[in-house]
Amino acid sequence: MGNEMLMTKKTVEGIEKEVQICKECLMLSTRPRLTYNEDGVCSACQWSHEKKTTVDWAKRKEELKAFCDKYRSESGFDVIVPVSGGKDSSMIAHKLKYVCGMNPLCMNINHYVDCNTEMNEINLKNFVKNGFELFRVYPNQKIERDLDRIGLVQYGQPYFGWMTSMVLAPLKLATKFNIPFIMYGEEGEVEYGGSTELKNKPIYTVDDTVRFYLSGVHPNTYLDKYTEKELYWWLPPSNEDIQKLQPAVAHWSYFENWNSNYNYEYAKKYVGLKEQVSNSVGTYNNFAQTDGILYPLHTYFMYLKFGFGRCSQDVCIDIRSGKITREEGIELINKYDETYPEQFEEQYLEYYQLTKQEFYDVIDKFANKDLLEKRNGRWVKKFKLV
Ligand SMILES: [Zn+2]
Questions:
Q1: How far is the CA of 19 from the centre of ligand 1 (A)?
Q2: How many distinct structural domains can be found in the chain?
Q3: From the CA of 26, how far away is ligand 1's center (Å)?
Q4: Which of 2, 14, 62, 324 pairs as cysteine with 383 (C-beta 3.0–4.6 A)?
């Protein structure tokens, strides 16, 4: 067993700490909750094979139909779809409405910093023009900004406040409108590597939400600073409300084989999605996550903490789908992965109310010194992908 492990296990070169790298894609073992099989293949790659071979998509389609039949109402809305104006949520809303015959109430949670992102506004307007109903929330921006700041400084999570409202506010809306069905996009843990707990589970709970999507930080934590009223969009509904509603919170990726490129083409064709003209910061494609300036910072902190950035994330997806080879992936990662989103720096300082020095101190605090070293004022990789 030991020798076999040595033969199959691949590690990165150039650092003392042992970091495993997937033999198929390029995902590192630093990714939280990621596992590898005995052939040295990560859970996301294993899932990408299962999607093509053993997953019974016809059966899952039937399950979706059963959920839709269960929650289709006589009048009013049947399902809540959180939307960003991007490709994934546009595709899901369109399919739920026109393929599944549901009446979706789409919900957009506006982020303070990104509220005027031109592309985001254009896409949301197109979305509404294409016949969708949109419930837009502008949460208390002073509080959101403060929660984002706490997230950045304490956890290295630049949009923790926004993320919290993203995963909890739709539940609040669900209890108010009595719509027990909520449909999100992809389940990131299963699709991109992490826990495989939700691989065969169509719906999940509030506890799962806190564990997987908020890194275990329950927003109750902030009740020492803000009142329950003030934290309305950041707290889950009461246990009593949850019991009454019995919500079914699901991810579309459970029911249909998730493919970003397909979603993009679909949203362009049916919902009028517009693409960004230049490449997104820190990567080579121009359609993923076109919705804001905090996302590049979020992925930059992922790079600082775990040694893989936004480009790595995109490359791994494209290797799994067969779009690029592993060798091409290494080249792209070497070119883009370490990119610091410098062009937004002034906006970050303004948003988080930090001086440049304080901001850089936070960056230095979260940089993983086992994996990275500082050269010319920027954190670069000490290791080599092979
Ligand atoms: Zn992999």
A1: 14
A2: 2
A3: 6
A4: 14
| Alpha carbons 25 and 45: distance in angstroms, whole number | 7
CA–CA gap between residue 105 and residue 77 (Å, rounded): 6
Q: Which amino acid would we find at residue 227?
A: T
Distance 361 CA to ligand 1 centre (A): 33
Q: Verify that 98 and 174 share a domain, yes or no.
A: yes
> Which pLDDT score, from 0 to 100, does residue 284 have?
79
pLDDT tens digit sequence for 265-302: 999 999 888 876 556 777 777 654 454 788 899 999 99
Both tokens of residue 166? 């993203």
CA 1/CA 307 separation, integer angstroms: 29
For residue 206, the CA-to-ligand 1 centroid distance in Å is: 29
81 CA distance to ligand 1 middle (Å) = 30
Q: pTM of the prediction?
A: 0.89
Domain extent, residue 188, equals 57-255
Give the Å distance between the CA of 149 and the centre of ligand 1. 33
Q: Report how far ligand 1's centroid is from the alpha carbon of 345 (Å).
A: 33
CA of 317 to the centre of ligand 1 (A): 9
- DSSP, collapsed to helix, strand or coil, labels residue 107 as strand
Verify that 205 and 310 share a domain, yes or no: no
Same domain membership, residue 244 and residue 139: yes
Instruction: Tell me whether residue 260 is in a domain.
Output: no
Domain boundary among 255, 289, 320: 255
